[in-house]
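Course assignment 3, question 2. Fill in each field.
Student: A.L.
Task: Predict the tertiary structure for the chain below.
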Amino acid sequence: MCLILMAWRVHAEYPIVIAANRDEFHRRPTAAAQWWPDRPRLLAGRDLEAGGTWLGITADGQVAALTNYRDPRQIKPHAPSRGGLVLQVLESQAAIADRLSQLHAVGAQYSGFNLLCTDGRELGVYESVADSGRLLAPGIYGLSNHLLDTPWPKVQRAKSQLARAIGNLPDETALLELLRDDSVPNDDELPRTGVSLEWERLMSSAFIATGDYGTRSSTVIRLAASGSASFREWTWRPDGSVGGEVAYQFQLD
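Answer field:
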C-alpha cells in the first residue's frame, strides 16, 4: 500500500475515517477484500503470493495498515513478507503501545516498513527505518512510502483533500476522488528516494495507471461513533478502469 490517509477523532460522527491506495505490480496475484475463511473475524484483501495483507479490519474494529519504505538500501532479499505483520497486529489483544513494542522487537528482520494500527481507543504508528513507535493525538495523518506525514506533494495534497472530504460524510464521493487523483508534481518537488527520476515521477501521484505497475485497489473505511462500520474497496485494471467493487456494512462486536 502506498498511500494511507486517516482522520482520527476529527469528525464527531465518524471518529475513524481511512482512505487508502495499494500500489503494486499487476502480475502479483491478489484477492479482493472479503471475510477470510481461515480467519473469519478478518475483513481484508489478500496477497495470494505471500499470504498476508496490506490493510485489514476485524469484527471488533481493530484496524491495521502498512506501507513499504521506499529506499533500495532498506530491501532485505530474504526477509519475510511484511504483509504478515498486519495479521499479527490485528490478531493481538494487547494495548496499542504493546503492539508497537512487539513491532520494535521484530522490525529489523524485515525490509523497511511503516504500520498504523488502532483498536478504536488509541492510534499508533511504528516506523521501522527510524525504529520509532508512538501513539498519535487526534488529527489528520498521511502516510506514503516514507515516514508518517513526510511532506511529499501527494501526501500534503491528499491530507488537504481529506480534511474537506470528511465534511461530506456519509457521502464518500470526495474520498474516492482524492484516491483517484493522478496529478503529477513538478520535478523539483519530487522526493529523492534512491530510485530513478522516471520512477519518482511515476509514483508521485496518488493514483497510478501505467500498465505493468499501478494502483491495484482503493479502500474507504468509516467507523461510526454508533458502533457501525463501513468498508468499501474498488479494484482497478492496468488502464485505471474499474475492475470490481465490494462493500460491507456491519456492527462492531
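Instructor remarks: The chain has a mean pLDDT of 96. Helices lie at 83-91, 96-106, 153-165, 173-179, 197-202.
Grade: pending
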